[in-house]
Amino acid sequence: MLPQGLIDALIDRLGADRVLTDRDALIPYARDWRGQFHSTPAAVLRPRSTEQVAGAVSLCAQAGVAVIPQAGNTGLVGGSVARSGQVIVSLDRLTAVRSLDIDNDTITVEAGCILADVQRTAAAEGRLFPLSLAAEGSCRIGGNLATNAGGVNVLRYGNVRDLTLGLEVVLADGRIWDGLSGLRKDNSGYDLKHWFIGSEGTLGIITAATLRLFPALAQRETAFIAVPDPAAAVRLLGEFRRASGDNCIACELLPRLALQLVCRHIPGCRDPLDEPAPWYLLVELASPAAGEWLADALQMVLASGLEDGDVSDAVMAGSLDQAAALWRLRESIPEAQTREGASLKHDVSVPVSRLPAFVSEAGAAVTRAMPGVRVCAFGHVGDGNLHFNLSQPPGDDGDAFLARADEAGRIIHDLVATMGGSVAAEHGIGRLKPAALRRYRSPVAVELMRTIKRALDPDNRLNPGAVLDREP
434 CB contacts (<8 Å, ≥6 apart)? Predict the structure, then answer.
């Protein structure tokens, strides 16, 4: 399926062990994490350096072959799958930590570094790299950057875009842009790195990044709180931020259904509270300053919430192990939903102030359209990002339920749009949502994206079909 001689040229450039064409060898790279998208790549390339990535991209460009970048392959929107005749460039061998500048509080790493390894490297030097995801043990920095990953600490530290000072990128023609700056102030023209962060490999292949570090945390207080509704959760969020001096680093909302599913399907998980509640809040306060004042702030807000009716019960973690057990309840929700049966997933965001109304109105709308559906809306109340997931009614046919994905998505996304939100909060567009991008972003915004794509990849050879699926 590839032009004659291309495989030989790639082997000459990369080495035989870095050019995979055997069907069995391609399997680990040939499907997405959810199993919704299946690749049929003609080859998988595993370069060991930026120069080898550039060489491979150059050869493919000359041969007119599309290139699909792939990092940890943990994405949720099919953004790193290939079609027949396309080549996957895996970054899983670019794993070097190139430099660690403690005085500048930066670390420069290659795109194949696993997120948890970057966290550990920073921690060994008394620093914090705050990006934290459920998939941090397998996702890689290149994919985090390509999707502008968020996670649980966005409330305090921002998305990965906010944690990035510089990039190294291989362009569509094989040239290398070295933008690995460690500067926090640089107004010398356009800030080019932001074109590539969140572009899902459609404008260039990120091969390395210089990332911001922060002082290691000396205090960390975690609580699991029963609340009556999302409105109470939003009010408590404001109180926690004020009482802690804006040291609330995570604030996660869970419905009763999510906790039930986790306790039912995930071994070792249990309800940490004695009585059931309709909603729960998982809150973490943390600071690099020594002391115990965050525990006092947490207790003060909880006491006030009990008096006001915003809190009905709560448990504070007394150790790191107890905190980890509470976080496991939150992080196990997707797996528990999968074990329960078919589910429809929606990664959306609205302004925090509109979140309670959105949960109420969206829940009512999907229930009217799909009687018996179970709404499992959970996520990052601190930044307005909810995973508004739907579980099939008990006993229903799973395939029939999944066949209504477009109907459910339209109901939810239309409401998101009316509230000034986004239909792709942190997972990206990939191959799952290009139609939604066209529907819900303005024509001017979409045309600007197409203009940038045409400028940087005029032949549409970098991850074609992702984000922008076709010309108008």
Answer: 465, 466, 467, 468, 469, 470
